[in-house]
């Protein structure tokens, strides 16, 4: 990658086509002709970011901040906090976590055109409503990050993005383009916590907004999810549903109450239905009543008692007053989740005040929102949030792991603008893990968890043997993150060794020391991932041929450079 010295003005300068040659103008027209004719189009070339300039001169790596590490329980996952520009963090994760992430949740700037600490800054400048390229800048900013984020997701992965009316329509088109329209799942509606100031005026220019959105996409269109429920404000009484359904399975058509359907099917198999009929008859007998004499409360009470005795819900089936079989639907405190999540309170500032004793962040997202999103994957999911803000996603994951004994791992990335990382996000992470006292002096117990804290750093991008070796030595933390091996074992001048409960990671800086490293690896009982420095892209399989059942080998830094070329060129 060549080294250039560009400025932001180079990218943002207005083009003077009068000075262009005929060949350049033809090339420009051909490029414009290739643009899509339908969908979202914006001026990308005039809205470059500073990090794109930085990437011409330096490649991102991770620098460990050991004094911020937290270790409380070796049986729990090690969570990750990366301080730095989130695109640099995404670049690193594109190597360490390609197709390894289950859920991405982000709460990006809403681009309201407001000059406050939580609205959109582009190249260190607030973008206000008068900026002609306001939407183009935001779209360029988001597009690069969403494209990188997509590469992190497993084929079974999902992404959730919070947004409001200012960029909802643009974001929907952008995500259709990046993830595919077929992968759009829902636009979730959540309540918005805001004061209505319109009451003080005689007239208004528009209705106040009482909600925000979360766009929900999958990586592949065939992805299925666990059936989700939410709590009802009031319990719903049991009831009766038609036992016939329209799906056509001949094996599920049998005589029931003297009725054999000619089309469709009964909902249950014959044996289950006959047991359910007997259960209903048993209820009538025990209560000493006829069907028309029963109250819903009596039916629910009998059902709950018998289900408790049986250790599971029992079935009941009867003939309705109009002569159709119907089965009993039990009373419930929950209902199936839809895309309106108004049951989640928007007031989440109180959570941060309880931790810090004062207001430290405007409009943090509700814990319950993130906890619900995390349930769209398994209990050992890897969850990424690269607009970490106050750290709500980390807090939600820690709470959820505590509640259901999960092993979810969260990876956060945020810059340190206004000290948001060092004074809010990290301290919150630390307090939630270790425990704290709330403003009333009550002790809040910590939640199990471990944390590694990194900052993004850079190595020169100019291709040279010296820089390749430097990149290899500076990529140790990236390799440990890729392998999830954070426990240091031992080192020499030419190699380092790390481990977790399942395997080791060995990083070798000198090929001539392969025999010495192999001798050390022979002593180890767990599998080993070996990374060997090479100026080219040598295959070291033969050197470790006798250990291939135990050892997996990769040449570096070329494996890292391939990823960076894809991102930055």
Automatic annotation (TrEMBL):
InterPro entries the record matches: DNA_methylase_N4/N6 (IPR002941), DNA_methylase_N6_adenine_CS (IPR002052), N4/N6-MTase_EcoPI_Mod-like (IPR002295), SAM-dependent_MTases_sf (IPR029063)
Keywords linked to the UniProt accession: Methyltransferase, S-adenosyl-L-methionine, Transferase
Gene3D superfamilies reported for this sequence: Vaccinia Virus protein VP39
GO terms, molecular function: DNA binding; N-methyltransferase activity
GO biological process, one term: methylation
Domain DNA methylase N-4/N-6: 101-403
Top-level taxonomic group: Bacteria
Pfam families recorded: N6_N4_Mtase
Family recorded in the similarity comment: Belongs to the N(4)/N(6)-methyltransferase family.
The protein, known as: DNA methylase N-4/N-6 domain-containing protein
């Amino acid at each position: 990658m060549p080294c250039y010295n560009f400025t932001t003005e180079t990218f943002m300068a207005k083009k003077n086509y009068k000075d262009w040659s005929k060949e350049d103008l033809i090339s420009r027209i051909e490029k414009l002709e290739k643009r899509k004719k339908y969908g979202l189009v914006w001026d990308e070339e005039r809205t470059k970011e500073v990090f794109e300039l930085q990437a011409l001169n330096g490649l991102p790596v991770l620098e460990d901040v050991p004094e911020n590490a937290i270790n409380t329980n070796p049986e729990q996952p090690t969570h990750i906090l990366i301080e730095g520009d989130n695109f640099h963090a995404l670049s690193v994760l594109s190597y360490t976590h390609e197709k390894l992430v289950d859920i991405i949740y982000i709460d990006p700037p809403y681009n309201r055109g407001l000059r406050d600490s939580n609205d959109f800054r582009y190249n260190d400048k607030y973008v206000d409503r008068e900026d002609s390229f306001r939407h183009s800048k935001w779209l360029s900013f988001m597009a690069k990050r969403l494209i990188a984020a997509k590469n992190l997701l497993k084929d079974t992965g999902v992404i959730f993005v919070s947004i409001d009316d200012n960029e909802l329509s643009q974001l929907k088109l952008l995500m259709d383009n990046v993830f595919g329209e077929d992968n759009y799942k829902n636009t979730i509606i959540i309540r918005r916590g805001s004061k209505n100031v319109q009451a003080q005026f005689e007239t208004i220019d528009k209705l106040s907004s009482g909600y925000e959105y979360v766009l929900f996409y999958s990586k592949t269109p065939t992805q299925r999810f666990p059936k989700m429920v939410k709590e009802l404000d009031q319990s719903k009484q049991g009831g009766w549903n038609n036992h016939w359904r329209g799906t056509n399975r001949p094996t599920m058509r049998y005589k029931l109450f003297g009725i054999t359907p000619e089309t469709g099917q009964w909902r249950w198999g014959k044996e289950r239905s006959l047991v359910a009929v007997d259960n209903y008859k048993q209820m009538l007998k025990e209560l000493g009543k006829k069907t028309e004499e029963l109250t819903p409360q009596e039916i629910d009470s009998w059902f709950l008692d018998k289900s408790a005795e049986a250790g599971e819900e029992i079935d009941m089936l009867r003939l309705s007053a109009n002569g159709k079989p119907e089965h009993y639907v039990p009373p419930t405190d929950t209902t199936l989740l839809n895309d309106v999540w108004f049951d989640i309170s928007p007031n989440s500032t109180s959570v941060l005040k309880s931790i810090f004793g004062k207001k430290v962040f405007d409009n943090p997202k509700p814990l319950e929102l993130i906890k619900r999103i995390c349930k769209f994957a398994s209990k050992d999911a890897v969850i990424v949030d690269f607009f970490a803000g106050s750290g709500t996603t980390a807090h939600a994951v820690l709470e959820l792991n505590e509640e259901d004994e999960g092993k979810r791992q969260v990876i956060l990335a945020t810059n340190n603008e206004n000290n948001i990382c060092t004074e809010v996000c990290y301290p919150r992470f630390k307090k939630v893990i270790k425990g704290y006292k709330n403003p009333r002096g009550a002790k809040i117990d910590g939640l199990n968890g471990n944390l590694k804290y990194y900052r993004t750093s850079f190595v020169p991008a100019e291709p040279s043997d010296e820089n390749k070796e430097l990149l290899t030595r500076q990529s140790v933390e990236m390799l440990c993150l890729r392998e999830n091996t954070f426990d240091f074992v031992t080192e020499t001048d030419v190699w380092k060794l790390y481990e977790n409960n399942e395997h080791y990671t060995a990083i070798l800086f000198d090929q001539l020391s392969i025999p010495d490293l192999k001798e050390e690896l022979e002593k180890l009982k767990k599998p080993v991932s070996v990374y060997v420095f090479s100026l080219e892209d040598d295959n070291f399989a033969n050197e470790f041929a006798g250990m291939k059942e135990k050892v997996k080998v990769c040449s570096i830094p070329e494996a890292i450079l391939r990823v960076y070329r894809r991102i930055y060129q």
